[in-house]
Design a protein that fits this description.
Blueprint (H helix, E strand, L loop, with lengths): L5 H4 L3 E6 L3 E7 L23 E4 L4 E4 L6 E3 L6 E3 L14 H16 L4 E5 L11 H19 L3 E7 L11 E7 L6 E7 L5 E5 L7 E5 L4 H7 L5 H7 L4 E3 L9 E4 L9 E5 L4 E9 L13
Antiparallel strand pairs: 1-2, 1-14, 2-16, 3-4, 5-6, 7-9, 7-12, 8-9, 8-13, 10-11, 11-12, 15-16
Length: 296
Amino acid sequence: MRPVSEPDIKFNCRVKYFPGDKISIACFSKPIFNPYKAELHGKEKKPFESLKEYNPETGEMAYKFVEGKTILCPFTGKYVPLVIEKRKKNNEIRSDSIKRAIDKAFEIGLANDFQYFITLTLDETKIDRYDTKKIYKKLRDWLSNRVKRNQMDYILFPEYHKLREGETERAIHFHGLINAQNLTLTNSGRTTKNGQVIYNLDNWKYGFSTAIELDGSPAVVSYVTKYITKDNTRIFGKTYFSGGRTLKREVPTDYMNKDYVSFDGQEYFISSANMSVKYKVFNLDFDIPGEEDEFE
C-alpha cells in the first residue's frame, strides 16, 4: 500500500447509525480515526518491548526493568508493572479502557432490539454470592444454556451490593438487557411506579429475578451503562458480558472531518491524550429542512 500523509486519511469525526433513525456522533479536537488502516508516510511502528524476561534461576518469566513501565517493589525485590492513578478533573473522561467499554456497551444496546431490562440476584442458600469464581462458572453456564436453548441475546453488567450490617464482603448481582422470545416469564403481580408489569425469569434458579419490558427508549441503554465503573470492573475482570447468535456488535459508520469549535455537543477533556471530544446522540428527523445536510 502506498504511504499517505496523515491529513489525507485521518478523520476527527465518527458518525454511527442505529436502528430507529438514531445517530451517535463523536467529534475530536484532533484527527484520530484511520478507518481504512492506511499506512502513514513518515510514521514508523515502535518496536515492541516485552516487560518480562526469562529468569534462569526460577525457570520462569519475570518482569524486568523498563523505564517508565516497571518499578522495583521494595517489599519483594522484584520488578512490577508501573500503574499511575491520575486524579480526576471536572468533566474529565474516566480511564480510557472504561470509556471504551461504555461506548461499546452503549453501541450494543442501541444496535439490538432488546425486549427486557433484567435484574438477577444471588440467594446465599443456593450459591456463595461472595465467591467470584463459583458465581462466574454458574453464570457462564446459565448464559450459554440460554443462548443454545432459548436463542437469547444479552448484555449483562455485574455490580456489587452495598455492604449490609454484619457483612465484611459485598454480594454480587447483575443488571442487563435481553431478548427473551423463548424464555418463560411469570407475572410477579407487581408493577413499577410507571405501571409496567414486573416479571420473574423462571430459568434463573440461583436467586431472585425481575424482568421489565422495554419501550425502545435509548435512555434505558444510558441507564444500564452506568454500571460500568472502576469498582465493578474488578468483580470478574471485565466490564460486561454479552453474547447471542443474533447479537449485533457493529453498526454502519461514517468518518469525516468537521470543525471542532463549531460542532455542538457534550464536551469532555482527555488528559492522557491532551485532546477534547464532543458527543451528541439524537433521532434523525428527515422532515426538518436541511437537517439531513448537516453532516454532508
